[in-house]
């Protein structure tokens, strides 16, 4: 949700994207946006979707829940199911659990790549692609900027996992969320250093992974942070001036 707010702020001011790289929630935002949906449309799609109906128990296997049924939702809104037919080049990161390595998907079935990238280990059953088990790319790289390096004029990073200081954890769900965020943020600064601009919305620590009821609030946090960055960042201002000049030619 917050990634979508950031994208909305940037597109509202004329920023055009040649390539988007993402993992987990970032992969969903990237794919749907690159398929031609406006960020606000994607928010509405997610709000209208009853997520729990797309999850089913997977007891006795390598995860508590299977998300494979969610493939139906992706195929409904992106029926061509192709990286090549997207309006913007997209790279999706996932982890090959068997080989213990990070994989960047740029072709093949788009829906399976998205599901693999979102597959939180221990909660969701791994996604099988070509006999390989895949899980959430955030395990090894929650900020997959590397595919953009050398391929873009300006790299803008959207980091929506800011960790506030907390004094108590009230539930098992909060504990899992907190532990996951700490783990995936452990090497974040290394990846951030490869970006020209970083947009990092704060105030997201009070929301959980499945808080779709708060979708608009989370979206607006990203949107407002995006606006602040645009107004205060000289590199973005320079790019916008260049684009205006090109449009006048």
Per the CATH scheme, the topology name is Cytosolic phospholipase A2 catalytic domain
Percent in helix: 25-40%
CATH C-level class: Alpha Beta
Give the CATH architecture: 3-Layer(aba) Sandwich
General description of the model:
By secondary structure, the chain is of the alpha/beta class. The chain has one domain: Cytosolic phospholipase A2 catalytic domain, CATH 3.40.1090.10. Helices cover 39% and strands 14% of the residues. It has nine helices and nine strands. Strands 1, 4, 5, 6 and 7 form a five-stranded mixed β-sheet that branches. It has a two-stranded antiparallel sheet with strand order 2-3. A two-stranded parallel ribbon has the order 8-9. A hairpin with a 4-residue loop joins β4 and β5. α1 packs across α8. The longest helix has 18 residues, at 215-232. The radius of gyration is 18 Å and the shape is globular. The relative contact order is 0.18.
Condensed summary:
The chain has 249 residues and is α/β, with parallel strands linked by helices. It has one domain (1-238): 3-Layer(aba) Sandwich (Cytosolic phospholipase A2 catalytic domain), CATH 3.40.1090. The chain has helices at residues 2-12, 25-34, 39-48, 71-77, 110-117, 172-184, 188-192, 215-232, 234-248; strands at 19-23, 56-57, 65-66, 89-96, 101-105, 127-129, 132-136, 156-158, 197-199.
